[in-house]
Every structure is written in C-alpha cells, then in structure tokens.
C-alpha cells in the first residue's frame, strides 16, 4: 500500500557530544509532509533545519527516532530514495574547473536518461537566465545557486528537498523560482524547503513547521502563521517629536515598544490606526511608514502567545 505521507518523521533526535558537552540539535521531532504540497521548514540559523535534512538524506545518523520518505526507511533504503528526489544543499560544492554544462552532463549520466535530462536542464537554465557555458569558478554566488536548482530539478524528481534555496538570488529570479515551485506542485509533486525568508514562505508554501532550538513548536497553515495582529510604525516629524505627541503615544493601549530619536519615532501598533493618527496630528508629520513584522518578530510573537494561533 502506498505511503500516505511523502515524509514521515517520528521521534527524531540528534545529539552531538555527550555528558555536559552534549548539544541537542533535534529533540524528538515528529512531522509529516503530504503529497503535492510545498512545506516550509522555518527557523533562525542554528534551529536544526539543516540537521533534519541531513538525517532525511542519510548524510548523518540520528541518535533516536526514525524517518521515512515514500514509505521507505531513510537509513536502510536511502539509495532507492535518492533516485526519486532532488536536493539543493545550503552550501553547494561543485567542480570549479568544469562548465555548468559539463557538470549537468556528468550528473545526467549518473541519473541515466541523459538526453531528456539535459534537455530539461537547458530549459530550466534558460528560465533562470543562467549561462551554463561558463565555468563554475566564474559564476557568481547567485548563479551557482541557479545551477544547483537546475541540477536538483532536471530529472523531474517526485520530491524536492531545498535548503535555503533563494539565498543570493535577485528578486526577478526569485519570482521565477516561485513559478517553478508552483508548477512542480501542480504536477502532484512535493517540495520540502527550509527558509527564514517570510515573503518566500507566504508566496509558495501550503503549510509550515516552526523550529526553534531543535524543537518543533508547531505546524501551521501559512495563513495562520502570518495572521499576526501588530505592525511596526515609523513616523518622521519635521521639528522633532513633540513632547505631547510622545506622551500621548506612550499612553495609547495599542502602542508598545515606543522609541523616539530626534525627529523619528518608532513603535509597535497592535490595533486600529485611528487613535495613533489623531495623536501624531499634533505634530508636523513628514513621513509615515508601516512595516510588516519580520519572521523573527512573528516567532517572538508566536512564542509569547501574541501571534498566529493565539
């Protein structure tokens, strides 16, 4: 019978060292990723995202627990699994003296059907505006990332595992990446990607897992994760922040973390804008800027019970 989950992780732990020097990289992680979804694996650097991916690929062994992909054991059946996945590591190491085309041809020869795989690679490279005639050492970090994406996708795998895939990509290429991921999902395939870029997650992911210090805090839909109730507000006054305005803002129940520096005031607003606008009208406002919370802000709000799901 076919596996109901593409990725199924149960009680997975990874501990480095022992005794007082032991470091817990993953703590009893349990997680399922379903067929045909783009799953975002979120957390700050050092949260355990890359460790999870390495365990899934059998690059490192877990201390406890189990992981399966396509219903196959990640340790015992890793060769079969690797035939059906595409992988982009966070740190990509390729042959510096070879051209992109040569790297593609070599990996395609390992995969088998060279002609169709190379044709697909060339189409992907064109969409990503990647010149595969250049040697790897002559590519920028962003273009090396593009080459890694081409290699991961060119054999039309059933599952993509991507570690921080858009690092170094310019905004236009990021948009093309989003299109490619949506097309991949529309074919019934699955994507598991680690990220700390909220805009990327909002654009393409169905669900997200929130990881912190090796502990999976929650699995949420993107809508639930980003449904925070606060924003950052920046106000620039012409003649400095008037004392009565500063005091009025400090007294507003919806305003917190107020800070005034010269002519600039910054605050966190949780609620309606009208009381704030009435208060700042006592001064001459040159600029008003509203900033959506960063992923780190959302994490902090979530952990304190103020954000998504609260």
- The helix/strand order is EEEHEEHEHHHEHEHEEHEHEEHEH
Overall structural class, as computed from helix and strand content, comes to alpha/beta
| Mean pLDDT, all residues | 90
Arrangement of strands in the largest sheet: 6-7-8-3-9-10
**Major sheet: size, sense and barrel closure?**
6 strands, mixed
In short:
The protein has 310 residues and is an alpha/beta fold. It has two domains: 7-226, P-loop containing nucleotide triphosphate hydrolases (Rossmann fold), CATH 3.40.50.300; 231-292, Alpha-Beta Plaits, CATH 3.30.70.2470. The protein is built from eleven helices and 14 strands.
Task: List its salient traits.
six-stranded mixed β-sheet; 34% helix; globular; four-stranded antiparallel β-sheet; Alpha-Beta Plaits; alpha/beta; 2 domains; 310 residues; Rossmann fold
Describe the structure.
The structure is a single chain. The chain is of the alpha/beta class. It has 2 domains: 7-226, Rossmann fold (3-Layer(aba) Sandwich); 231-292, 2-Layer Sandwich (Alpha-Beta Plaits). It contains 11 helices and 14 strands. The chain has helices at 49-56, 78-82, 100-111, 114-127, 141-153, 171-186, 198-204, 222-226, 243-251, 274-280, 295-304; strands spanning 7-16, 23-33, 38-42, 64-69, 72-73, 85-88, 159-163, 190-195, 207-212, 215-221, 231-237, 255-261, 264-269, 285-291. The strands form 3 sheets. It has a 6-stranded mixed beta sheet, sandwiched between helices. Helix 4 (114-127) runs antiparallel to helix 5 (141-153).
């Amino acid at each position: 019978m076919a596996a109901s989950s593409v990725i199924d992780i149960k009680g997975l732990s990874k501990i480095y060292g022992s005794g007082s020097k032991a470091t817990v990289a993953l703590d009893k992680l349990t997680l399922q990723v379903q067929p045909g979804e783009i799953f975002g694996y979120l957390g700050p650097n050092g949260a355990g995202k890359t460790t999870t991916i390495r365990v899934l690929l059998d690059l490192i062994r877990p201390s406890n627990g189990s992981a399966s992909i396509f219903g196959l054991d990640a340790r015992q059946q890793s060769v079969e699994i690797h035939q059906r996945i595409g992988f982009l590591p966070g740190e990509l190491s390729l042959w510096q003296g070879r051209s992109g085309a040569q790297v593609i041809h070599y990996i395609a020869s390992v995969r088998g059907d060279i002609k169709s795989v190379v044709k697909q690679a060339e189409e992907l490279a064109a969409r990503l505006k990647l010149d595969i005639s250049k040697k790897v050492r002559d590519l920028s970090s962003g273009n090396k990332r593009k080459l890694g994406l081409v290699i991961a996708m060119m054999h039309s795998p059933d599952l993509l595992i991507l570690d921080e895939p858009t690092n170094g990509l310019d905004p236009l290429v990021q948009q093309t990446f989003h299109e490619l991921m949506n097309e991949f999902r529309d074919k019934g395939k699955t994507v598991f990607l680690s990220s700390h870029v909220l805009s990327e997650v909002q654009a393409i992911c169905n669900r997200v897992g929130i990881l912190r210090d090796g502990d999976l805090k929650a699995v949420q839909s993107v809508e639930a994760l980003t449904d925070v109730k606060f924003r950052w507000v920046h106000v620039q006054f012409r003649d400095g922040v008037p004392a009565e305005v500063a005091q009025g803002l400090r007294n507003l129940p919806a305003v917190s973390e107020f800070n005034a520096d010269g002519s600039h005031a910054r605050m966190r607003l949780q609620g309606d804008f009208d009381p704030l606008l009435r208060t700042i009208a006592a001064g001459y406002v040159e600029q008003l800027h509203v900033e959506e919370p960063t992923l780190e802000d959302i994490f902090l709000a979530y952990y304190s019970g103020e954000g998504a799901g609260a």
